[in-house]
Design a protein that fits this description.
Keywords: Developmental protein, Differentiation, Flowering
GO biological process, one term: cell differentiation
Family: Belongs to the Frigida family.
Number of strands: 2
Shape: rod-shaped
Distance between the termini: 138 Å
Structural class: mainly alpha
Protein name: FRIGIDA-like protein
Helix content: 55-70%
Number of helices: 8
Organism: Brassica oleracea var. alboglabra
Strand order of the largest sheet: 1-2
Length: about 210
């Protein structure tokens, strides 16, 4: 009986409090707070999504430029991250001589050497490696030499404008010889190229 009266008194007290203006104000405040928290949560999610997008874009750009993120072999320690960044230099861009040799552009290589003939040391340094990129280095060198050795006697005079062209032909031959490795495998040269080189040598000797 006593418990029933206590329960009834509690219900009446709650009803009285629900009619209290202060109680209603608290409900309104809680509703406003819930709306503010909900708006904050939406803004936070939008910001997090934006940050994720930026992070993915940066990672993609780093990988494109040769920076690769790798995991450390040792287990992660509490005070040290287990992720390391290994820097790899981007692929070296091919030089003009390398591109010309690779594409077997003999006339363009002669023109390139003619323009840069004053930088003989530079040409000797870069041409042997570039000639190795040609599909058929021996044939390519013969094409670069041309038929300068068949020119008349006047072309070999000291004041002849053909002197520079002759220097280019001799230099490309010299650079080709530098591609040979004395201890390496013997270079395989096609029979047709050998015949052409032999005929050129005979004609050159006669001159």
């Amino acid at each position: 009986m006593i418990r029933r009266r206590e329960a009834q008194a509690s219900v009446e007290t709650t009803i009285e409090q629900s009619n209290d203006p202060q109680f209603l104000k608290s409900i309104v405040d809680l509703t406003a707070l819930a709306a503010a928290v909900n708006a904050f949560k939406r803004r936070y999610d939008e910001l997090q999504s934006h940050m994720d997008y930026i992070e993915n874009a940066i990672d993609s750009n780093l990988k494109t430029n040769g920076i690769i993120e790798i995991a450390a072999a040792s287990p992660p320690s509490p005070n040290k991250t287990a992720t390391a960044i290994a820097y790899q230099s981007p692929p070296k861009e091919k030089s003009e001589a390398e591109r010309l040799c690779e594409s077997m552009c003999s006339k363009e290589l002669r023109r390139y050497m003619f323009v840069n003939i004053s930088e003989r040391a530079k040409l000797i340094e870069e041409l042997p490696g570039a000639l190795k990129l040609a599909k058929d280095p021996a044939k390519f060198v013969l094409d670069c030499i041309g038929k300068f050795y068949l020119q008349g006697r006047k072309a070999f005079a000291n004041d002849s404008p053909a002197i520079t062209a002759r220097k280019v032909s001799l230099l490309v031959l010299e650079c080709y010889l530098l591609t040979f490795d004395p201890e390496g495998e013997k270079k395989q040269v096609g029979s047709s190229v050998k015949d052409e080189a032999e005929a050129a040598a005979v004609a050159w000797k006669k001159r």
